[in-house]
Write a structure and sequence with these properties.
- By secondary structure, the chain is mainly α.
- It has a domain at about 60-225: Hypothetical protein af1432.
- The chain has 11 helices and 2 strands.
- It has a two-stranded antiparallel ribbon with strand order 1-2.
- Strand 1 (about 250) and strand 2 form a beta hairpin.
- Helix 3 (about 60-75) crosses helix 11 (about 205-220).
- This is HD-GYP domain-containing protein.
- It holds the Pfam family HD_5.
Length: about 290
């Protein structure tokens, strides 16, 4: 810098060098301030959900991690990978609007209770819709319970109507639900959960997303959740190999339980006593809401 100052151009040369450096430093600092603010916003929302439903503490972070793994396996760029991680972390933020007694109920839900829980994607979208940096993650919050065959909720979207981000999170959510202990179900071994996802690929889940998760977990592994109430890892599943429940019913994965031997696919949230499907979705939306 002293050489520039003593050059024929003197202070002008020094200014031409220092000004871009200063602007770059300011932009870099601003980026990190914004990123820290974004992370703080997400962390506060996740902590609120974890406090409300302590039994699934850590579920949001694990779904974020699984979503990120799927996105990377599919070759998405770093920005989209980060957004998919945010989508997974925030997918259940709408449960802040659901009564705690329903989230922690140890047993089957009544049809009315199920309808209340099925409102959580719309509650979540209302919470995050104004957070612009989330981008397509907002669509995942709203649509992560849609199913390829149109049997999901809240709008009964099918196939390509479902945003890609939501199709990623749906697989990540169901996988973690199956490999975690819940108040109403015991965890499955990782391999059993992957087999269940493969069984339901094409009907409920996007086969590309399922295949991506299977590949990345086969290669990198996965550490299932261990809850505070039951420190045994999910790999120590004590259910019969054929999926039978202690009372003679069937475990259908992801917290979905039927006592009639039904074959419902895994889901991130729901459990029933009659093997029925989720309540009828609302009017089909013309496209994904953001």
């Amino acid at each position: 810098m002293a050489l520039l100052w003593r050059s024929p151009y003197g202070p002008v040369a020094a200014l031409l060098v220092l000004l871009p450096m200063g602007v770059s430093w300011w932009a870099f600092a601003q980026y990190h301030r914004e990123r820290a603010a974004h992370q703080a916003t997400i962390r506060a929302l996740v902590q609120a959900v974890d406090i409300k439903d302590g039994y699934t503490r850590g579920h949001s972070e694990r779904v974020g991690r699984a979503s990120m793994m799927i996105a990377r396996e599919l070759g998405m760029d770093d920005e989209r990978v980060e957004l998919l991680r945010f989508a997974g972390i925030l997918h259940d933020v709408g449960k802040l609007g659901v009564p705690t007694r329903l989230l922690t109920k140890n047993g089957p839900l009544t049809p009315e209770e199920r309808r209340v829980i099925e409102l959580h994607p719309e509650y979540g979208h209302e919470i995050v819709r104004g957070i612009s940096f989330l981008g397509e993650a907002r669509a995942a919050v709203l649509h992560h319970h849609e199913r390829l065959d149109g049997s999901g909720y809240p709008y009964g979207l099918a196939g390509g109507q479902i945003p890609e981000s939501a199709r990623v999170v749906a697989v990540a959510d169901a996988f973690d639900a199956m490999t975690s202990n819940r108040s109403y179900s015991r965890a499955r071994p990782v391999q059993a959960a992957l087999d269940e996802l493969r069984r339901c690929a094409g009907a409920h889940f996007d086969p590309r997303m399922v295949a991506a998760l299977v590949r990345t977990i086969t290669r990198s592994g996965w550490h299932p959740a261990v809850t505070a109430d039951d420190p045994r890892p999910a790999a120590h599943d004590t259910r019969p190999a054929d999926g039978g429940a202690p009372d003679g019913g069937r475990w259908t994965g992801g917290g979905t339980r039927s006592v009639t031997g039904g074959t419902r696919c895994a889901d991130g949230d729901m459990r029933t006593a009659d093997g029925g499907t989720p309540s009828a979705p609302g009017p089909t939306a013309p496209g994904a809401r953001r």
